[in-house]
Design goal:
single chain; 145 residues; mainly alpha
Length: 145
């Protein structure tokens, strides 16, 4: 149940439609990914390449900071930035390796991938531990009452 109480009829209907939309989106993405695999060029030049990578790293730093800050406060809401940050870490690791040139530059990308995957696993483990230990419906310590 959402929000700890029985949802009304309109909420249940909206939830069903949202689930359907998400399921259809997942199905549509499969042929789209196949199309991209066949049609995209092997290499591209991006005008704002540094901004893209710096922005991604800033998002990771902000997510890790928010996760740590909420975790120190023992606030269960830490799970939201932790799961989001784990996702961004995995995406960054994927793109670091996929965009690295072959040869010597690939080694640091693979090493960085190991660090980012470990950080992502840590975020997910922390989230699982927090949600496992706090009873459902409990008010987060340090949060609003």
């Amino acid at each position: 149940m959402l929000l700890g109480k029985a949802p009304d009829r309109a909420t249940r209907a909206a939830f069903r439609w949202l689930v359907r939309l998400i399921a259809v989106s997942a199905v549509v993405l499969v042929p789209w990914a196949a199309y991209l695999a066949l049609s995209l060029p092997a290499s591209v030049s991006a005008r704002h390449w540094p901004a893209a990578w710096v922005g991604l790293d800033v998002m990771m730093a902000a997510g890790l900071a928010a996760t740590a800050w909420l975790a120190v406060r023992r606030d269960r809401r830490m799970a939201f930035p932790a799961v989001s940050t784990a996702t961004v870490l995995l995406v960054d690791a994927w793109f670091d390796v996929c965009t690295a040139p072959s040869g010597d530059p690939l080694a640091p990308a693979l090493a960085g991938m190991c660090v980012e995957v470990a950080e992502a696993a840590g975020c997910l483990a922390l989230t699982a531990a927090v949600w496992r230990t706090a009873p459902c419906g409990a008010v987060p310590q340090g949060g609003a009452r």
